[in-house]
Amino acid sequence: VQLVQSGAEVRGPGASVKVSCKASGYTFTKYYIDWVRQAPGQGLEWMGRIDPEDGGTKYAQKFQGRVTFTADTSTSTAYVDLSSLRSEDTAVYYCFDMWYDTWGQGTQVTVSS
Using CA atoms, how far apart are residues 41 and 53, in angstroms rounded to an integer? Predict the structure, then answer.
């Protein structure tokens, strides 16, 4: 079981970023994909999850309206789209599968003017 994320991104304030998480080694639609992030010097912050089978989503209140989770079952890839970026969004973003306790390698997103 493996989750492989897209590479580091740098964006300016107000821009958007989309991070991908490609799953392999299991049936993608069977288990949720969760997203968390870790800002510099901070702990892990849960952002929400998506059910790849039906696209159902759950968002942490803090991210509602600014974050969108999607999943492409044809490529077994989950995505997180974060809009209206601000400096506080600078963090490493991770996807994980709780059932297999498997994490992506993390994607550094840097928001800087």
Answer: 35
